[in-house]
Amino acid sequence: MDLFIILVICLSCLILFSLWKGSHARRKLPPGPTPFPIVGNIMQLNTKDISKSLSMLANDYGPVFTVYFGMKPTVVLHGYEAIKEALIDQGEEFSGRGSLPVVERFTQGLGVAFSNGETWKQTRRFSLMVLRNMGMGKKTIEDRIQEEASCLVEALKKTNASPCDPAFLLGCVPCNVISSIIFQDRFDYGDRKFHALIRYFHENFDIVSTPWMQLCNTFPFLHYFPGSHNKLLKNVAAQKQFILEKVKEHQESLDINDPRDFIDYFLIKMEKEKHNKQSAFTMDNLVITAWDIFSAGTETTSTTLRYGLLLLLKHPEITAKVREEIDRMIGRDRSLCMQDRSRMPYTDAVVHEIQRYIDLVPTNLPHAVIQDTQFREYLIPKVRAVLSIF
User: Fold this and answer.
1) Which CATH architecture does the domain made up of 117-296 adopt?
2) CA distances from 235 to 155, 240, 303, 305 (A)
3) What is the rounded CA–CA span in Å between residue 78 and residue 83?
4) Sheet order of strands, 385-389 included
5) 134 or 119: which carries more pLDDT confidence?
6) What is the per-residue pLDDT across 54-110, written as a single tens digit (0 to 9) for each?
7) pLDDT top residue among 61 and 14
8) Percent above pLDDT 90 for the chain
9) CA distance 131 to 114
């Protein structure tokens, strides 16, 4: 009985301390719904549609408000004006990456998508330079995209117009374009390792979209329990091993005077900075950066393509107009190229509308302020998480 009383007293003190600490912190932050002790505003949000819940709160609290995921306050920016003002006009202050504990378990602060500070700056600057050298926005990558589009068309022709699920093929296309940049070579659509790599991306995307993952990021102690987060970690470990094997193959055939792809450029940079203990160019960072590039481009692009096909099937009148413009401007004898974009305003508008309509990443990845930041009439403390939604 005495033990029970002690536990009750300790729990009461914890709740009171949580209430006091939260009240003190909220004085400096934008307004928002009153959080419950420990769980914050989780009970007031629809975890299956966080974006909609936050949009509804914006109607009550305005375009800048605060919600608590557990005991962690998060500043929410809602709408174009607030997001532009923060991420563009004050982009340097808001350039940090918010904490995602599940992801941090396998990225360990490395890569370009989930890193911060000097590691992020070095890796981002280098990655952009290499991609430009390899032709990002130029003819060379355009050739690779056209080649992969032709392979997709040939694969679809083999179905002989019979009903089929194109999801796998649509996943192959962006993955192969990225593979040609990272590994130099594309994969055959029948390659079993390639199948496994794409399956992992599909599964990862599904897992990170679940309410359970949101809870795991809010309450990191849940990592020690069974759940889909363990499947995510297993998938990523397999993907990292796949990338590492490719890196070892590159090490055996590397010519520092003739880099073939992203891995070669990174290995050369590693060699140049091997005596710099502060360098971000390590084997671990190479693997995570390659994984980041794959993850950022593969599932997002293939999902957009799938939604685009569904919307065109649902609106045949729109499809007919797009087809007419393509036949008139391109014909049947050559592939589409970037120079055609300015001459095909209707098709360009349809592509943009598809991207707007599907709202692929509604809350975006969390940002963080890298220093105490004055934003409008509020003071956002350093390392505070920031979500942006339209």
Assistant:
1) Orthogonal Bundle (1.10)
2) 27, 9, 19, 24
3) 7
4) 64-69, 72-78, 385-389, 367-368, 96-97
5) 119
6) 889 999 999 999 999 888 899 999 988 999 999 999 989 998 888 888 989 999 999
7) 61
8) 42
9) 19
Contacts of 110 (CB under 8 A, 6+ apart): 119, 123, 280, 282, 284, 285, 288, 289
Task: Say what the pLDDT of residue 327 is.
Answer: 92
Which part of the chain has CATH 1.10.630.10? 117-296
Is the CB of residue 178 less than 8 Å from the CB of residue 293? yes
CA-nearest of 342, 348, 341, 339 to 138 is 339
The amino acid at residue 56 is: M
Task: Give the mean model confidence (pLDDT) for residues 251-265.
Answer: 91
Q: How many of the other CB atoms lie within 10 Å of CB of 4?
A: 8
Q: What six digits make up the tokens of 145? A: 């995209």
φ/ψ (deg, to 5) at 68: -110, 120
Identify the pLDDT of residue 136.
Answer: 58
Phi and psi dihedrals of 363, rounded to 5? Answer: -105, 5
SS3 assignment, position 139:
helix
- The tokens for 176 are 């192969």
Max intra-chain CA distance, the chain: 86
For residue 299, the one-letter residue type is: E
**For residues 156 and 148, what is the distance between their CA atoms, to the nearest angstrom?**
12
Mean pLDDT of 377-381: 88
Beta strands in 32-148 (DSSP E): 64-69, 72-78, 96-97
Calpha distance 127→292 (Å, rounded):
11
Q: How far apart are CA 338 and CA 341, in angstroms?
A: 5
For residue 37, the 8-state DSSP code is T
What does the alpha-carbon distance between residue 200 and residue 175 come to, in Å, rounded to a whole number?
A: 12
pLDDT computed for residue 14 by the predictor: 63
